[in-house]
Amino acid sequence: MTEKIASSKISSPSQAVLGEGAKSTATVALCALLVGAVFMGISPVFVRLADVGPFTSAFWRVCAALPVLWVWSRTESKALPIGQGWSWPVVIAGALFAGDLFFWHLAIVHTSIANATFLATLAPVWVLLGSSFILREPVTANMWGGLMICLIGAGALLGSSLGLAPERLLGDAFGGLTSVFFGGYFLATRYARRSLGPDGLMFRSSIVTAAILFLAALFLEDALFPQTWLGVAALAGLVLMAHAAGQGLLAYALGRLTAGFSALVIFLEALIAAVFAWVALGETLTILQIIGGAMILSGIWFARPSGAAILRKYKPLDKFNK
C-alpha cells in the first residue's frame, strides 16, 4: 500500500508537467493559427492590386515563396532530402490548394469581396464532416455549435455587402467551389502532418501547387509579369504574408490542433478583411458588423478543445513538431 502511494506521488508531478506542456503547445499552435488567419485575411486586397490576372497572381503567390520555404525546410536539424518525404497526402494537399487558389482568385474578380469571403468561409462545414469520416477525429457538439455561431456572425459582419445579382452568380459559384477545395486542403494537410513537419510539407506541397497554377496561368492568361511597381508590391504581399507566413503558420498549427477546430478560424478572415477596410480604406464599421465580429470570436471560443482533449490529441504528433 505504501509503495502504491509513493508511486502515485512520484508520477503525479510528471503527469502535471506533461499536461502543462500539452497546454502550452496547444496555446502556441492557437496563436500561430490566429496570426496565420490575419495574414490570409488581407490577401483579397493584394489580389485586386496585383497587375496580373487571377491565375498568374495565384501562381506567383506560391512559386515565389518556394525559396523562403526551402530555407525554412533546411533549418530543421533532421531535414529530409528533397527527394524524400513525398506521399499521396502531400501531393493531394498541393493539388487541392491549387484548386482553392484557382477558384478563390476567380471569385474575387467576378463577384464582391464580401460574397467571395462569405462563401469561402463555408469550408469548415466540409472540414467538420470530413474530420469524422476521413481523419477519424471526434467532432464535438461545441464545434457544430461554434460553426453555427460563426456562420451567423459572418453573415452579420458582411451585412448589406452580401447579395445575389445575376451578373455575379458565376463568381458566387467560384466562391462555393473555393470552400470545397479549401476544406479538402485542410483535411489533407492535417493527415500529412501526421508523418511530416510543417516546413517539409509546405515546401513539397507548394511545388505541386505552383506546377498546376503555372499551367493555368500559361494557357489561360496573356501576361506572366506585372507591369507596375504597385503590382510587384502586391505580389510580394501575397508571397510573404499570405503564403509563406499565413499558410506556413496554418500548416504548423494543423500538426497540433484538430482540423475541425482549426477550420473555424477561417471565419477570422472575414473579420480581418472588415477591420482592414476600416483602418486602411476608411470604411465605416456598423453596429451590425461589430456584433457579427463579436459572434465570430465567440463561436471560435465556444468550439475550443478542452485541456483533456489537448493532451490526448496532440501528444502522438510531437515527433513531427519539434
Automatic annotation (TrEMBL):
<feature type="transmembrane region" description="Helical">
    <location>
        <begin position="169"/>
        <end position="189"/>
    </location>
</feature>
<dbReference type="Pfam" id="PF00892">
    <property type="entry name" value="EamA"/>
</dbReference>
<feature type="transmembrane region" description="Helical">
    <location>
        <begin position="287"/>
        <end position="303"/>
    </location>
</feature>
<feature type="domain" description="EamA">
    <location>
        <begin position="29"/>
        <end position="155"/>
    </location>
</feature>
<feature type="transmembrane region" description="Helical">
    <location>
        <begin position="21"/>
        <end position="46"/>
    </location>
</feature>
<feature type="transmembrane region" description="Helical">
    <location>
        <begin position="85"/>
        <end position="107"/>
    </location>
</feature>
<keyword id="KW-1133">Transmembrane helix</keyword>
<feature type="transmembrane region" description="Helical">
    <location>
        <begin position="52"/>
        <end position="73"/>
    </location>
</feature>
<feature type="domain" description="EamA">
    <location>
        <begin position="170"/>
        <end position="302"/>
    </location>
</feature>
<feature type="transmembrane region" description="Helical">
    <location>
        <begin position="113"/>
        <end position="135"/>
    </location>
</feature>
<keyword id="KW-0472">Membrane</keyword>
<dbReference type="InterPro" id="IPR000620">
    <property type="entry name" value="EamA_dom"/>
</dbReference>
<keyword id="KW-0812">Transmembrane</keyword>
<feature type="transmembrane region" description="Helical">
    <location>
        <begin position="201"/>
        <end position="220"/>
    </location>
</feature>
<feature type="transmembrane region" description="Helical">
    <location>
        <begin position="232"/>
        <end position="254"/>
    </location>
</feature>
<feature type="transmembrane region" description="Helical">
    <location>
        <begin position="142"/>
        <end position="163"/>
    </location>
</feature>
<protein>
    <submittedName>
        <fullName>DMT family transporter</fullName>
    </submittedName>
</protein>
<dbReference type="InterPro" id="IPR037185">
    <property type="entry name" value="EmrE-like"/>
</dbReference>
<feature type="transmembrane region" description="Helical">
    <location>
        <begin position="261"/>
        <end position="281"/>
    </location>
</feature>
